[in-house]
């Protein structure tokens, strides 16, 4: 499956799922634009390494996805966008009545509003070349809920709603918009929430992994970033040209329960 000649922008892609998705898109031949809110040598080195490993054009562009104008500037600066993967995301775990307002605002901005801004900036570019794919990394928490993650769950449900709306608005064009809903993937984001989960559930690390996280996943395994990258490449393929406005769960059976 070749994506040669396509340019993919992946938000929040200097670690975890975003980096895994960027790798699989580059492996399929796409030029890739990596992004995060930092501007370190290692961010640019990451892109350079991907470029030389897969023989594609790979760049890193700093843009803070909590700021609407920077989301739009990322797309403008990239200059071309055939594939947009809205992946940047953060998480916070706390009961609703103790949820810090600034965390709520940041989660909604980075996990949901950023996808609105980047999509709004990318659609005219896709229309110009007559082809486009928007892939939103939502979550099993975009389809189901669990306690203590109100902002994240509200944002991810919002991403699923945005996905369906963009799909309907582009339905007659050669552009698709879909969401991938991962279950648990052991990335830095999940590692960072384990201590909070230990606190709110009063459990040790292994029990949180077994009883809180993987208990939701009938496969009893974490999904991998390579599997999420592979699903993204599939959604960018011609085989998926009539798949739009839907969610694909990569969750070991979580949402079948
Ligand atoms: P991660 O922490 O490894 O990656 C998050 C990425 O977002 C990083 O590259 C980080 O630099 C970037 N980011 C954070 N704030 C940003 C900002 N203000 N501007 C630009 N970039 C920013 O976590 P991950 O698990 O790889 O998460 C990636 C996406 O997958 C998120 O949207 C997350 O909600 C979703 N997801 C993850 C899991 C999981 O189990 N790991 C499950 C379902 C959905």
Characteristic key phrases:
single chain, 3-hydroxybutyrate dehydrogenase, alpha/beta, NAD(P)-bd_dom_sf, binds nicotinamide-adenine-dinucleotide, 257 residues, 7-stranded parallel sheet, SDR, SDR_fam
Descriptive notes:
There is one protein chain. The chain is an alpha/beta fold. It starts with 6 loop residues before the first strand and ends in a 7-residue tail after the last strand. Helices cover 47% and strands 14% of the residues. It has 2 domains: 205 residues, Rossmann fold; 37 residues. The chain has 8 helices and 7 strands. It binds nicotinamide-adenine-dinucleotide (NAD). The site of nicotinamide-adenine-dinucleotide has 27 residues, from helix 1, helix 4 and helix 6.
Summary, kept brief:
This protein folds into two domains: 7-183 and 223-250, Rossmann fold, CATH 3.40.50.720; 186-222. 47% of the residues lie in helices and 14% in strands.
